[in-house]
Amino acid sequence: MNTVLSGIRSTGNLHLGNYFGALKNFVKMQHENNCFFFIADYHSLTTHPTPADLHNNVKQVIVEYLACGIDPEIATIYVQSDVIEVAELYLLLNMNAYIGELERCTSFKEIIRKQPDNVNAGLLTYPTLMAADILIHKANKVPVGKDQGQHLEMTRTFANRFNRLYNNEYFPEPVAYNFGEELTKIPGLDGSGKMGKSEGNAVYLIDSPEIIRKKVMKAVTDSGPTEPNQSKPDSIANLFSIMKAVSKPDTYKFFDDKYNDCNIRYGDLKKQVAEDIIAFNTPIREKILAITDDSTYLKKVVSMGKEKAKASASKTIKEVREIIGFKSF
Ligand code: TYM
Description:
The mean pLDDT is 97. Helix 3 (51-68) packs across helix 13, helix 4 runs parallel beside helix 14 and helix 8 (126-135) packs across helix 9. This protein folds into two domains: 3-184 and 295-324, Rossmann fold (3-Layer(aba) Sandwich); 209-289, Tyrosyl-Transfer RNA Synthetase (Orthogonal Bundle). The longest helix is centred in the C-terminal third of the chain and has 30 residues, at 295-324. 55% of the residues lie in helices and 7% in strands. By secondary structure, it is mainly alpha-helical. It has a three-stranded parallel β-sheet with strand order 1-2-3. A two-stranded parallel sheet has the order 4-5. The protein is built from 14 helices and five strands. Bound molecules: ligand 1. Ligand 1 is lined by residues 5-9, 17-18, 20-22, 40, 43, 130, 133-134, 142, 144-145, 147-148, 151, 184-186, 194-196.
């Protein structure tokens, strides 16, 4: 049986990128595997949320996980900061993570460009904390979007290095997992790259139909293709990628053919994308609204998850301590 782990930073509501990058695959795997899905609230501290925001964001993400179909009776849903063993493994892994490799990490280089006034050590060691999340359960499959590929690579490096250093094949080599397909990247509505919370280009699972229509109709397009089968510029390809995720294959083909014949009307394309996102989001949104205020249920989910995650994590930490050579007197 595989041990599967995935997680999302608690920095705001979940968007279509989170769903198609990580959640969808996780939900598909939860019945056949030993599955852990967590809320990365330690990771969210790199951007200094207020205490009230920190708590509300964690709660919101749990609600949205559940609404997307993670079953807490089967999979383990837990909050990262509830499992203190993660922090210990992070410390231990940091001892053989090198500054040079952490500085070369693409996401570190990007974030220091974005927030030059807050280049904290947590940002630099973000990949070791992520490795600790994965290795604490000795997970071997990790459903993530394309943007996390390099972090997974670093996790393998840290795991292998630990195994070599202590001459013990203890940690497995975790791989990003998308059912044999290429990892997904859902682009933003602005066509400038990936859909993201901090990019301001996202459609959230909680967005109402009115908001979705407004966001999609505002997306910038161009004056249309002039030659048959012309390749699509980013500001058009993004709408097609989102359509591929949320619409029926026939609908996608219909608009793709229209584009290739130079007959496309972008207004129609956008209307269709908006309506298909609404159809996709509606059942999730209804569930979000139904469980948001059910604090008894949420409390039960979180405490059940904490217990299961701690049992798995404390076993790993005990073994890791022994391997490293910590002994009691
Ligand atoms: P985060 O919170 O940025 O994103 C959570 C998950 O959503 C995926 N994702 C996307 N996939 C496709 N297209 C997009 N536009 C898109 N945007 C986000 C991400 O790939 C990710 O799978 N470092 C992680 C959180 C984390 C984690 C872990 C994940 C911490 N520890 C251990 C897996 C295992 C992050 O910031 O993801």
